[in-house]
Amino acid sequence: MLAALRVRNYRLFASGQIVSNVGTWMQRIAQDWLVLELSGYDPVALGVAASLQFLPTLFLTLWAGVLADRIDKRKLLMVVQAGMALCALALGLLDVGGIVQLWHVYLLCLVFGVFTAFDPPVRQSFVGEMVGREHLANAVALNSSTFNLARVVGPAIAGLMIVWTGTGWVFLVNAVTTLAVIYGLFRMNPAELHRTAVTTSRRGQLMAGLRYVRGRPDIIAVLVLVFCVSTFAFTFFTTLAIAAANVFHRDADGYGLLSTLLAVGSFAGALLAVRRSTRRKPGLGLLVGAGFLFGLFEVIAGLMPTYLAFGLALIPCGLAMMTFMNTANSTIQLSTAPEMRGRVMALYMLVFIGGNPVGAPMTGWMAAEFGGRSPFIIGGAVAVLSTVVCGWVLARRGGIQVRSRLPWVRRPLVARTPELAHVD
Q1: Of 154, 157, 161, 302, nearest to 240 (Cα)?
Q2: CATH pick for 3-194+205-420 out of 3.40.50.2000, 1.20.120.1220, 1.20.1250.20, 3.40.30.10
Q3: 34, 102 in Cβ contact below 8 A?
Q4: In the chain, where the domains are located
Q5: pLDDT digits (tens, 9 = 90+) for 106-152
Q6: Is residue 307 a contact partner of residue 351, using CB atoms and an 8 Å limit?
Q7: pLDDT tens digits for 366-422?
Q8: Residues 294 and 247: beta-carbon distance below 8 Å
Q9: CA distance 39 to 364
């Protein structure tokens, strides 16, 4: 289960990520709470902040993938992480100094979003360079495990820190933890990386990546499903804060606890993904089934009558969500040629995150108009419907083999298209 950790470069990367991810989750909690406080607990303002943070993804992520295939990924990651640390430092100093205003948060969300538009495609494609194809699925699953382990710890610490010290010091802590990633990248041995030939600078590289994806129906199928589910159902950064404050009337520590309970389920899902990575390749059947269950559990959570019942319902929701995310990520990476991985992962991250500028304000509007429970119920219902429709299309029209790992689908559908037969 820990095969990828035998690689020294990956150990350095993973250890830095654990520390940095704790700070990242602390900042997410503190930022949401700060926006609520500055806006008078307006859910629309929370949606605007999330939208601004994800908006640069729409315009920059594909070009980040081109750079990832053209420039040294390790050095590029160091620059990106340094920029993210400076954003956290600036917000922390403004907050601690008592001069922070809502427009400051909006502006720094936008600047931070520029760096985060570059980070995921570069970081995701860099995993293959660190461990090679043999341990790629295991490394992807371990990344999710460390990310969600931090997600268990970070929100709980942030909730307590906000109550004791205010939000400003949380941002400053995140700025310091980001240095752990930069240090790990600096300590790596470049000679041990599994690098492919760097793509030379020439016109048309972005279009070449898009043409590559257009000729791969298996990749397109995953991208369509990820877009539908992530845009309408992956809205927890906005919806949990709204539920804590406006539905259950809790303070920051109550919001942090809800995020931690969601993370407990996500961490369990990540551990299951680590175990699966040693036994079988990810499959489209698992992807469709996990998306369906995630939407169903989200609807159930939205209907829970009490704070405790709502929090406990987030655990299976997080497990299904992480199974869906890990399966999609691993399927894309293992199905992509190494020289195209940066551009394809950029497109994947664009699809995964790019719907947030639409989904986040829409979530805030739904919460303001129909109540804090509505984003969970409506978003979960959309996820269920999307997976049912996409799964039916994949099975009946796409000719893709979908052998479900889930008990209610027992009959495998045989792939009729040779290039898709390797996707289970």
Answers
A1: 302
A2: 1.20.1250.20
A3: no
A4: 3-194+205-420
A5: 999 999 989 988 888 788 778 878 887 777 777 877 877 777 778 77
A6: no
A7: 888 888 888 899 989 988 998 888 888 777 655 444 444 444 344 443 333 333 333
A8: no
A9: 13
Residue from 267, 275, 370 nearest 325 by CA = 267
Give just the sign of the alpha carbon dihedral 218, 116, 316, 278.
positive
Nearest CA-CA partner of 348 in 238, 212, 235, 205: 212
Angle between helix 217-233 and helix 307-335 axes, rounded to 10 deg: 160
Burial of 164 per CB tally in 10 Å (0-12, 13-18, 19+): exposed
One-letter identity of residue 188: M
DSSP assignment string, 329-340: HHHHHHHS-GGG
Residues paired with residue 413 on neighbouring β-strands, in sequence order: 402
Q: What is the token pair recorded at 72?
A: 């040294």
Q: What does the block give as tokens for 211?
A: 């043409």
In this model, does residue 353 exceed pLDDT 80?
no
Confidence of residue 221 (pLDDT cuts 50, 70, 90): confident
Contact 101, 177 (CB under 8 A): no
